[in-house]
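Table S2 (text version). Query chain:
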Amino acid sequence: MSFEGFPDEGLVFYEGLEADNSKTYWTRHKADYDAHVRAPLQALLDEVAPEFGTAKVFRPYRDVRFSHDKTPYKTHQGAVVHPDGAGAGSWYLQISAEGLMVSGGCWRLESDQVTRYRRAVADGVQGPLLQAEIDRLAAAGWSIEGDRLSRVPAGYTPDADRMELLKHKSLHGTRNWEPTDWVHDRRALDEVRAAWRDLRTLNAWLSDNVGATTKEPRARR
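Corresponding structure-token output:
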């Protein structure tokens, strides 16, 4: 199946799910989800896979075991690509009633990765490279996000170079597109591909300077 855009029926499906997040609605409209959300998303991912790698498509069901919000279904469909061997630096894509979202970078770092990240940010060579890339992305319309400390990280002084980057515990760039005509045709593929390419330098920096965690995998509760 070739990608021909995200049908408007998929966005309408999520509008309905936001209004009625129930098993009854999901069961009644499961065919719409499969045909107008899951299938076109997978088709797009298959087309970009030769360049970026195989994506993981997230389950549409929420994990409500430890949440006060017991609504059973996610009101968006997301997918992520973790390049083999990179450890840090990934691409993300999401479709919802609000349109398309693309993102890249890292969303959660273990403590050893945060230590390496901050060491590289403070470095006289690698730090300016990251700052320049973050400045470029921001100027190009990307929103620079991630978990941040409100205070100076331990071991650094308030006047340290690139202090705002040092506060980050994760770092990613994000761009959102509201529903528009090109979302519904193959131009969406071109936009996603171009956006992911624009994040390649950030992901490469994270891969080279942060890498994979050396900590044991977290036990599942």
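Notes on Table S2: The beta strands are 56-57, 76-81, 90-96, 99-106, 143-145, 171-177. The mean pLDDT is 94.
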